[in-house]
Amino acid sequence: GLGPLDWSEGTPASMDGRRWTIVELRSRKELYDEGVAMRHCVASYDHSCAAGGASIWSMCLERNHGRRRRVLTIEVSNRSKRICQIRGKVNRLPSEKELNVVRRWAVQQGLVLGELI
C-alpha cells in the first residue's frame, strides 16, 4: 500500500539539481544487489518481506550530471506503518539532508519515523 518517491530540487539548468527517488525492493535479487552495493545485510530480510511483515526501500540520488547512486536502505514495518531502520553504506546513519527527504516521503505515505539508532 505504500508508494515510491520521486522528488527533484534545484533547477535542471544549474549544477545544484538533485533528483531523489525511493523505490521498494521486491525480489530476493533486488535485496541481494542492494546488500552488495551498500555493504550491509539487507538480503537477510527476504523472509520477512515475503511474509508481508516488512518492506525494504532503496533511496537513490541523481545529480544533474546523470550519475545515480544508492544512498540509503529503509526498512518499514508494514503492520505499524513505521520506518524502523535507515542505513547508508556500511550501516552508516543518514545525514540530516537525507533524513529530510525520508521525512517528506513518510508524510506523503502516512508513515511514522521511529527511533533510528
Structure description:
- There is one protein chain.
- The protein is 26% helix and 35% strand.
- The chain is an alpha+beta fold.
- It has a 6-stranded mixed β-sheet with strand order 1-2-3-4-5-6.
- The two termini are 26 Å apart.
- The mean pLDDT is 91.
Taking pLDDT < 50 over at least 5 consecutive residues as the criterion, the unreliable ranges are none
Helix tally equals 3
Major β-sheet annotation: 6 strands, mixed
Mean pLDDT: 91
Estimated radius of gyration = 14 Å
How would the global form be characterised?
A: globular
Helix content: 25-40%
Tell me the total number of β-strands.
6
Beta-strand content: 35-45%
Structural class: alpha+beta
* Termini gap: 26 Å
> What is the N-to-C succession of helices and strands?
EEHHEEEHE
Biggest sheet, spatial arrangement of strands:
1-2-3-4-5-6
Short description:
The protein has helices at 28-38, 46-51, 96-109, and strands at residues 5-9, 18-25, 54-63, 68-77, 82-87, 112-113. The chain has 117 residues and is of the alpha+beta class.
Give the SSE layout.
Layout: E1 5-9, E2 18-25, H1 28-38, H2 46-51, E3 54-63, E4 68-77, E5 82-87, H3 96-109, E6 112-113
Parallel strand pairs: 5-6
Antiparallel strand pairs: 1-2, 2-3, 3-4, 4-5
